Amino acid sequence: xxxxxxxxxxxxxxxxxxxxxxxxxxxxxxxxxxxxxxxxxxxxxxxxxxxxxxxxxxxxxxxxxxxxxxxxxxxxxxxxxxxxxxxxxxxxxxxxxxxxxxxxxxxxxxxxxxxxxxxxxxxxxxxxxxxxxxxxxxxxxxxxxxxxxxxxxxxxxxxxxxxxxxxxxxxxxxxxxxxxxxxxxxxxxxxxxxxxxxxxxxxxxxxxxxxxxxxxxxxxxxxxxxxxxxxxxxxxxxxxxxxxxxxxxxxxxxxxxxxxxxxxxxxxxxxxxxxxxxxxxxxxxxxxxxxxxxxxxxxxxxxxxxxxxxxxxxxxxxxxxxxxxxxxxxxxxxxxxxxxxxxxxxxxxxxxxxxxxxxxxxxxxxxxxxxxxxxxxxxxx
Amino acid sequence: xxxxxxxxxxxxxxxxxxxxxxxxxxxxxxxxxxxxxxxxxxxxxxxxxxxxxxxxxxxxxxxxxxxxxxxxxxxxxxxxxxxxxxxxxxxxxxxxxxxxxxxxxxxxxxxxxxxxxxxxxxxxxxxxxxxxxxxxxxxxxxxxxxxxxxxxxxxxxxxxxxxxxxxxxxxxxxxxxxxxxxxxxxxxxxxxxxxxxxxxxxxxxxxxxxxxxxxxxxxxxxxxxxxxxxxxxxxxxxxxxxxxxxxxxx
Lengths: 381, 250
Prior knowledge:
With 381 residues, chain A is of the alpha/beta class. Chain A has 12 helices and 5 strands.
């Protein structure tokens, strides 16, 4: 008996001159017990002596489970390969029943997947086609979103106002704590980095310029955009993805309600309204962070710092920052909703949609920033 | 077929927060029973199943497995008891990022020291027992609802459990698939001697396979009948039980 309290499983053979091979099974044939291999049966079947039938003696067999069944299935396959008759009468009734059950439904022809190595160029080609299709899909989605917006302006878009207010709350007020924390810390970081360099020239007062221009022109908008991509974009993708899994989107379509109008439009409106407001809030807290560094570490006066900040900022700078944030709002909403609507019908697909929404959102924010910065440079703004 | 008591429920109250859904439940499931938990919609059948399988704590009362109070023992002991369970959830609950073979293999990898080739053989066996031979490399999203349910059963059987729990096994299945599943449940009980607990209100299945049952009455918020459903149909005087078992014909 081993430490699991099981008796050793053993197998013995008796051959008869009439071609009968009697397989004697003794002990506990359970998966947690080391079991004899069916190879021993194969040796007997392929040895010189001609075996015509295989039978079993299980009078000494104690407990058994799937371990015995896997062994018996292998023996059955061996018998079939060697054209030997298998007599199952000596087996426990339950094992006979399960053996019957295991072979009751024949393997469906062609069901088994062939594992084949894809040639390298075939993989590259498939990726390129996939990229092309997803680009077409994205452009189609953007086009559809634009049409939906046009319908909104002529008063023909259908969505529930209450959903819009809930989304405004979700995208706005509920995002304030994380935006506050990140913005203050960003202001502090900009202040510190600027102070270290500017102190070398005795120009520490210009920390106010660095922080104010940096935050208001681009950093406030970028950080808010990234936060919203991670927070709200992912949430949009997960919500819409789960709705896709639960066939809720199909239900809307069959009712003749456009999911673009009913689901995507309120989300886009909410983010387009809230993103610039969050951006202004982020700018203010970033300046507060810079002020803490300026007043607390560089011994600048509060009024002095504020006057410097006021002088550094222009309406153009403020407008550029707001423009950034409005664009980011559209991008985050589009990427979140696009990935959610593209979601397949499984739990892992919802996770993939959320991840993909965040990645698409952040990448598009960075690309858009580069484009806007270049255009501003060309226009001399 | 029935042996000694496998599950004993004593004075069990269940509910959510201060809301008592069912009270004073007392019943015994014997080894080898096919035991049905039945009742109208919203009576708490699935909640009772969750309590039996350790997903939800009762408000009060005892659930004894072979004499051990499931909700009183420490976590390790509870986990040891739970390893004796195989559970088929209503929608199969297969892990969507894994193939069928990986779904069935996971409990074997987790709880046994078997070699990968032994696990592969066992996985093939379990899938062939539920009529899914050859579907090892398929993902749940690539097969039908009925096949997902059968694959869920293969996973539930992975560790040769002593007790199999089924939550609405026939829900969403066509009559033929439903009948085949009933036959499979009977064959498993007869071959392995497993105890089977089923939550269902499919009368055809109940009368075809069950030898013991419990009726939860949503009005009185307690059990109003128990025993062999065929006997209940013939002998019960309770009007709600009769109404349920005759599909409202009486």
